[in-house]
Design goal:
78% of the residues lie in helices and 0% in strands. By secondary structure, the chain is mostly helical. It has one domain. Helix 3 runs antiparallel to helix 4. The protein starts with 7 loop residues before the first helix and ends with a helix. The model has no long low-confidence stretch (mean pLDDT 89). Keywords: Membrane, Transmembrane, Transmembrane helix.
Length: 96
């Protein structure tokens, strides 16, 4: 991946699209953390759904609803942190 600033709005939108969320996380260097967060939330919620309810589309929808706000929060946070390193580097380069 190129080390360049990312568009926070696009990064947040990528979270809604399966596959692109992984791309967005890898773009800011947080793919392993993102996968652990998504699995850490999604698997227990999915397990509860399987245990208490008959199999239906809700087994996919409910975990996704649980994951999205957290994923969006972290993607925005990580994208801001990623972009800050470039503004800090640019400032230190200007001082030289």
């Amino acid at each position: 991946m190129n080390k360049e600033p990312v568009d926070i709005k696009k990064q947040s939108q990528y979270v809604y699209i399966p596959g692109l969320d992984l791309y967005a996380a890898s773009k800011v260097g947080k793919l392993p953390q993102y996968v652990m967060i998504v699995l850490g939330i999604g698997l227990p919620v999915f397990g509860v759904m399987i245990y208490f309810f008959p199999i239906s589309l809700m087994h996919v929808v409910i975990p996704e609803i649980a994951i999205l706000p957290v994923a969006i929060h972290f993607m925005k946070k990580w994208s801001r942190e990623w972009n800050e390193q470039f503004s800090e580097n640019q400032f230190s380069d200007e001082l030289k």
